[in-house]
Specification:
Blueprint lengths: L7 H7 L3 H12 L14 E4 L4 E4 L5 E2 L14 H13 L6 H8 L3 H19 L7 E9 L15 E9 L4 E9 L4 H11 L5 E5 L12 E5 L6 H4 L1 H18 L7 H12 L8 H11 L7
Parallel strand pairs: 4-7, 7-8
Antiparallel strand pairs: 1-2, 2-3, 4-5, 5-6
Helix pairs in contact: 3-5, 3-10, 4-5, 5-9
Length: 294
């Protein structure tokens, strides 16, 4: 869906006050007026002291923020809206420390906001399956440590990557952090990321052999100096991912890696319309169901 482009000054002008944010949220939630989520009645009484709407038919009470990412959040919407802009407007993303300073919240609050937004990004991209010619590979992500290098290295997390090959450019991508690269994790990743019956290319890693179960799979033993000819786009995606993680976040532990992969993929898949991302992410947060973090 095409969204309007927006810059810093337009965002600043549109969402100057809490009322601006509430009005925008209400317009998207009830474009034709109040609709009760319980019985679909179209008339309600507004309870000023609690900022709630009470349905005139079934007496169900709801708020403008109910059923959205902002449900039960004690933070002003203005801080949420600006966090969304800062996350969406910079292709290098933003750290929790930096965000906490920009919107004047503590680090923990900024961290939880980013965690929720990254989950929303991951949920959105999980609705799409890759198709056409697909390149599949794995990578190791993590900080440098002494000892063994390559597979099995300490402090590294395995990531499975699938990337559409569109001849002269990459298409959409999907990434999944896994405990190890084996038949089970590969089978699950491909099932959830790629349409059945596609043409899939990979290297000759034995764990990737299960791809042939549901796809036209071609695996090649590829020397390191030839690998970019066989799997060019997936390797570019891997390189961009590592730059993304090291540039803004200076590395990420395996425990939290998937949420950063969610953000990277969401941003990468919309790289041709970067200026639309803040509006896309805001609208996604409004229509997304609440997220309860454990």
């Amino acid at each position: 869906m095409k969204m309007a482009k927006i810059n810093f000054f337009e965002w600043q002008s549109r969402f100057q006050t809490e009322s601006d944010c509430l009005n925008y949220l209400q317009e998207l939630k009830w474009p034709t007026g109040f609709i009760c989520p319980q019985c679909s009645h179209t008339h309600a009484h507004f309870i000023q002291t609690r900022q709630l709407y009470q349905c005139a038919a079934c007496q169900h009470q709801t708020s403008i923020k109910a059923g959205s990412l902002f449900h039960r959040s004690h933070l002003p919407l203005r801080k949420w809206f600006w966090a969304i802009y800062f996350v969406g407007s910079d292709k290098g993303s933003i750290s929790a420390v930096r965000l906490s300073k920009l919107i004047e919240v503590n680090w923990r609050t900024a961290r939880l906001m980013l965690k929720k937004l990254r989950q929303v990004m991951g949920h959105r991209d999980s609705l799409y399956l890759l198709s056409g010619v697909i390149e599949v590979d794995d990578a190791l992500v993590g900080g440098k440590q002494s000892g063994k290098r390559g597979r099995g290295a300490a402090g590294k997390t395995s990531v499975l990557i699938a990337c559409e090959s569109k001849e002269n450019q990459a298409g959409y991508i999907a990434m999944k952090a896994v405990s190890s690269v084996n038949h089970e994790t590969v089978r699950d990743f491909v099932k959830k990321s790629v349409c059945e019956g596609q043409q899939v290319r990979s290297d000759a890693l034995p764990a990737l052999n299960v791809i042939h179960e549901h796809h036209d799979h071609e695996a090649r033993v590829t020397p390191s100096n030839k690998v970019d000819e066989w799997l060019p786009w997936v390797h570019i995606a891997i390189g961009n991912l590592k730059t993304f993680l090291l540039g803004t976040f200076h590395g990420v532990s395996g425990k939290y890696l998937q949420e950063y992969l969610n953000e990277f993929c969401y941003r990468y898949n919309r790289r041709f319309f970067e200026s639309e991302i803040p509006n896309r992410l805001l609208n996604l947060a409004i229509i997304h169901s609440p997220i309860k973090l454990l």
